[in-house]
């Protein structure tokens, strides 16, 4: 069989017709012959047939019946039928129903039949190309979907949407003024714990911790801006704002502390003690936006509000599962939360003291 030639199957119960067909067309195609529909199906299951041409009047089944029978297994194979004038009405019906590509009247003319066979082969090849393109397109769509899902793990979804909707690179490199609540959360004594457990177990615990905390942040409409070793920088009010940004941040902090129960149930024996965290929240003016170059862009938050939130979190080192909030955060949430007023506290890097509050919980009836 010549691999460069197309494969033609001719089905006819008259051996002389088969011999004449092979003699006429074997120089152009790989010609396979069968004396019945059943024999033709056996050939098709062994060889990829591009075009079938069959006689209509055969003992076991008509040509139309044979072509109907192969549709479920070979719907893309091009189908043609040879017929006498008395069968025209049946064949036209078959053509109109989409089962037969061409009908050829007997006796067939070699030149005309070759034109029809070549046309059928072209149609088959075009359909194969179309199917291949669809398959490649589907693969590309799945690939792009995986990229997008991975991208969204590093960048907030809203920022991803902004990048995709932008008309060029220039609009991406910009910032905007916002008033948001900034949260820093950190695992207490993680360095000591990781030295004891080793890198594999430490990373396992850290990933479990980040998974739990990320879910709480998402539940309260926050977005993770950065993972800092064993720490988390989360924003409430950027890139998308909600009415209760400050309360969302405090509520999220309480939920994060509560979620540690699940983490400790699983890892308490491995770690040897309770895993605790410290959380600092500050509210104020920041500049947020895409910072970087045309080759590398990072969604960042800049301003004294961020620095102060980090310094507030540092003061929780002696407060296992402590949540400290600034005056600005407290003012926006004081009707909903229970706190212990700590008064003015010295903050590293700041000349003036800051009034801080330790969050104890929410008032009755509030989630």
Topology:
Layout: E1 7-11, H1 15-25, E2 30-34, H2 37-44, E3 51-55, H3 63-70, E4 78-83, H4 88-96, E5 102-105, H5 110-154, H6 157-165, E6 174-187, H7 190-197, H8 199-219, E7 223-228, E8 231-236, H9 245-271, E9 277-292, E10 297-302, H10 304-314, E11 322-326, H11 327-333, E12 337-345, E13 354-362
Parallel strand pairs: 1-2, 1-3, 3-4, 4-5, 9-11
Antiparallel strand pairs: 6-8, 6-9, 7-8, 9-10, 11-13, 12-13
Describe this structure in words.
This protein has 11 helices and 13 strands. The protein is α/β, with parallel strands linked by helices. It has 2 domains: 7-132, Rossmann fold; 172-362, 2-Layer Sandwich (Alpha-Beta Plaits), CATH 3.30.70. The strands form 2 sheets. Strands 6, 7, 8, 9, 10, 11, 12 and 13 form an 8-stranded mixed β-sheet that branches. Strand 12 and strand 13 (354-362) form a beta hairpin. Helix 7 packs across helix 8 (199-219) and helix 8 (199-219) runs antiparallel to helix 9 (245-271). The chain starts with 6 loop residues before the first strand and ends in a 5-residue tail after the last strand. The mean pLDDT is 86.
CATH architecture call of the largest domain:
2-Layer Sandwich
Largest sheet: 8 strands, mixed
Query: What is the CA-atom radius of gyration, in angstroms?
Result: 37 Å
Give the total of beta strands: 13
């Amino acid at each position: 069989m010549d691999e460069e030639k197309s494969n033609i199957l001719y089905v006819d119960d008259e051996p002389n017709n088969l011999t004449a067909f092979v003699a006429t067309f074997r120089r152009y195609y790989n010609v396979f012959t069968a004396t019945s529909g059943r024999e033709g199906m056996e050939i098709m299951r062994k060889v990829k047939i591009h075009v079938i041409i069959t006689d209509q009047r055969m003992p076991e089944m008509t040509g139309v019946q044979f072509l109907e029978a192969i549709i479920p297994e070979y719907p893309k194979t091009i189908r043609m039928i040879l017929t006498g004038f008395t069968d025209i009405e049946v064949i036209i019906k078959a053509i109109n129903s989409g089962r037969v590509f061409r009908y050829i009247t007997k006796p067939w003319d070699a030149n005309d039949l070759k034109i029809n066979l070549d046309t059928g082969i072209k149609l088959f090849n075009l359909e194969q190309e179309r199917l291949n393109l669809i398959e490649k397109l589907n693969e590309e769509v799945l690939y792009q979907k995986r990229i997008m899902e991975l991208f969204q793990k590093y960048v907030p979804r809203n920022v991803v949407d902004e990048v995709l909707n932008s008309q060029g690179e220039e609009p991406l490199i910009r910032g905007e003024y916002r008033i948001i609540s900034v949260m820093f959360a950190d695992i207490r004594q993680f360095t000591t714990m990781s030295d004891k457990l080793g890198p594999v177990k430490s990373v396992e615990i850290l990933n479990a911790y980040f998974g739990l905390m990320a879910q709480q942040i998402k539940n309260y409409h926050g977005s993770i801006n950065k993972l800092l070793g064993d720490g988390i920088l989360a924003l409430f009010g950027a890139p998308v704002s909600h009415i209760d940004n400050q309360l969302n941040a405090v509520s999220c902090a309480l939920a994060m502390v509560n979620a540690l129960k699940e983490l400790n149930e699983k890892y308490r024996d491995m770690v040897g003690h309770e895993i605790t965290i410290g959380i600092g929240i500050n509210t104020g003016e920041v500049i947020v936006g895409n910072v970087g170059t045309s080759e590398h862009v990072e969604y960042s938050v800049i301003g004294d509000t961020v620095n102060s939130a980090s310094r507030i979190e540092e003061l929780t080192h002696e407060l296992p599962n402590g949540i400290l909030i600034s005056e600005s955060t407290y003012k926006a949430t004081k009707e909903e939360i229970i706190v212990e007023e700590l008064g003015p506290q010295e903050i590293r890097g700041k000349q003036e003291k800051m009034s801080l509050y330790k969050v104890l919980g929410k008032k009755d009836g509030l989630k």
